[in-house]
Amino acid sequence: MESIEEAKKRCRRVMERVERLDTSKITTSCKGTLLKLAISELNFLSSTHLHQSLPVRASSPIGELNSKDRPDRRHVNIGHLEAVVHILEQPFITGVSRVCKPIPLSPRTGNGEESDCCGAKGVYLDIVCTLNRNPVWFLVSDRNPKYVSWEGCSGHKGLRTRIQEVLDAARFSLTLKPSSVILFFCNGLAQYVRLKLQDEFGAYDCAVEFPDCSFEFLEEAESEWINVLARSYQGARILEIKVDHVSSPSMLDHDIKDSGTDISERHIDMSLGASFFSLISGMKFCSLNVEEPGDLLHQNDLINFDTTALISIVSGISNGGTDKLLAAPETETRLRFKGNYKFVVAQVLSEIQNPIHVELSGVIFGKRGVICETVHSEFKELVLMCGGPKEKRRADQLLKCLM
């Protein structure tokens, strides 16, 4: 339980943080929307009929946090607003064009068919922005994990329906189409629900690391620091769903026919690393068996990989192995890599400064990868001779995406 005065202070802090958001990354209109929501929460807390303490967890499902839909409010949503602002404050979040509002829907699908995926009112989103140069949509939940239900109940949509609506809207969107939908669960997520998201929508842990805490400093008139307010996100669960690689039931047959691959080839083993999964999921899936290679000359969405690029994608160094290599004794590392010791160390330092998966993601997203026969043979031979078990599995997954 939290006192009303404490909740009011949190509202005022949110308003101050919104004012400080850089207008080069968020529109004035979006800042105005956030301020109005914070003021609404403050006015609600100032109403005379409230008791001296109240629960502070949002009472509505993820993505449905608009107070207008809840005339009989008994909970406050300041925790939800804090989380939205926390996300917006991160340096890798840019191009914020919409916050805490429904988006207009395209009346037709890409095939010219009528779209009724989300009804006439649109679909609610918490943030429409760019994450590391990729367009994304955010849904934020400040609910207690035990109240995040998979199926609907008591007149509320379940999480499954909400995610399906958002993904359908994302596919049919003409001007705001995202590469991914990111689910930010501030207080974590039940294992059962997480597995459902993984199995049905291909959700995986987001590779981007958000800070575990959000700090605010309180200051007296004499400018002496007297208190530090901290909101912890250490238990948060952040999942990502690639829009173009999840099929709704009504589109499944069409997707398989056009993709050129079967379902087993479209599956990517998430145990091979989150950044590898994110990188490969962003590519269009192809096949190495092309009947008419001459047709490739007329394509504008192709990217040609050389052997070095393929090795860098599957290498253990590029997939979270830097810390382990640096932590190992120098004598052990020298013995392991022999004459290549200095080269490996240089690669590790380069990866720490400029992660290769992050650099490549902006280049290959939405593209179809191609390789020549020589590169194909060299790559397979190098992986066979020098690759570890996971590197070999990554190589196998990568080749399934190329032609």
Can you describe what's shown?
It is a single chain. The protein is α+β, with helices and mostly antiparallel strands. 40% of the residues lie in helices and 17% in strands. The chain has 15 helices and twelve strands. It has a six-stranded mixed sheet. Strands 1-2 form a two-stranded antiparallel ribbon. A hairpin with a 5-residue loop joins β8 (213-219) and β9. α1 (4-20) runs parallel beside α3 (78-88), α9 packs across α15 and α14 runs antiparallel to α15. The model is unreliable at 55-61, 63-74, 108-120 and 247-266 (pLDDT under 50).
List keywords for this structure.
alpha+beta; 403 residues; single chain; 17% strand; 12 strands; 40% helix; two-stranded antiparallel sheet
Condensed summary:
The protein is of the alpha+beta class and 403 residues long.
Number of strands: 12
Which overall shape is indicated by the principal axes computed on the Cα atoms? globular
Largest sheet, order of strands side by side?
3-4-5-6-10-7
The average pLDDT value, as a whole number, equals 76
Estimate what percentage of residues fall within beta strands.
15-25%
Written as H for each helix and E for each strand, in order along the chain, the element string is EHHEHEEEHEHEEEEHHHEHHHHHEHH
> What is the count of helical runs?
15
The biggest sheet, with number of strands, parallel, antiparallel or mixed sense and barrel status, is: 6 strands, mixed
Helix content: 25-40%
Integer-rounded radius of gyration: 24 Å
Task: Give the distance, in angstroms, between the N- and C-terminal Cα atoms.
Answer: 58 Å
The poorly predicted ranges are: 55-61, 63-74, 108-120, 247-266
